[in-house]
Design goal:
158 residues; alpha+beta; Alpha-Beta Plaits; 2 domains; two-stranded antiparallel ribbon; binds iron/sulfur cluster
C-alpha cells in the first residue's frame, strides 16, 4: 500500500501524524510528509484511519483494500494473521459516527471541552467532528458531549 498527501489540500493540522506517526510527519514541513513508502503492512490500518480522519481529504491511498507490500519470506501468514486481527479490532471498535448540525450549533465549545479528540472549534465558528468513525475509547465521552449540547446539535449513529 502507498499513500500520498496532496500539498494543495493539506492544512498541516497534524491529525494524520497523530493517527500514524510512523507514516506521516510534519517535523520538517508545514504540510504532512509521507515518511514510509510503501507503507508496511502493520501500519496500513493506522494509515487508513489517518486518511479517513483527514479533514481536508488530502490523503489518497493506492491499493487501499489489499496489501501489495512485500513481506519477508516465511512471515507472510503471520503478517496476514496479524493484519486480520488489527482489522477485526478496528471494525469492532469503529461503529460510532457523530455529526454536528451546523444550523443548530452555536459554537459554545461544550463538546470540545468534554472530548477535544472528537470535536473542535479551531477552524470553524461551529463544532467540527475530527474523528469518523469514533474510536471506542472516545465513544462514552462523545455520548456525554451529545447529551450536554444545549442546542441538541450533535447526532450519534451507532
Ligand atoms: S490530516 Fe490531512 S490536512 Fe491534516 S496534516 Fe494530515 S494530510 Fe494535512
Ligand atoms: S456543544 Fe453543541 S452547540 Fe456547543 S459547540 Fe458543541 S455542537 Fe455546537
Amino acid at each position: 500500500m502507498r499513500v500520498h498527501v496532496d500539498p494543495d489540500l493539506c492544512i498541516g493540522c497534524g491529525i494524520c501524524e497523530g493517527d500514524a506517526p510512523d507514516v506521516f510527519s510534519l517535523a520538517s514541513s508545514s504540510i504532512a510528509e509521507v515518511i514510509m513508502d510503501p507503507v508496511g503492512s502493520e501500519f496500513e490500518a493506522d494509515a487508513r484511519m489517518a486518511a479517513e480522519d483527514c479533514p481536508e481529504s488530502a490523503i489518497s491511498i493506492e491499493n487501499g483494500e489489499e496489501s501489495d507490500t512485500p513481506t519477508p519470506s516465511g512471515a507472510d501468514s503471520a503478517d496476514d494473521a496479524e493484519e486480520s486481527i488489527i482489522n477485526h479490532d478496528l471494525e469492532r471498535n469503529f461503529e460510532m459516527k457523530a455529526t454536528v448540525d451546523q444550523d443548530l450549533c452555536i459554537g459554545c465549545g461544550i463538546c470540545e471541552g468534554i472530548v477535544p479528540e472528537v470535536f473542535s472549534l479551531q477552524n470553524e465558528p461551529y463544532a467540527e467532528v475530527l474523528l469518523d468513525p469514533i474510536p471506542e475509547e472516545f465513544q462514552d465521552a462523545t455520548r456525554e458531549a451529545a447529551e450536554e449540547c444545549t442546542e441538541v446539535a450533535i447526532t450519534i449513529e451507532e
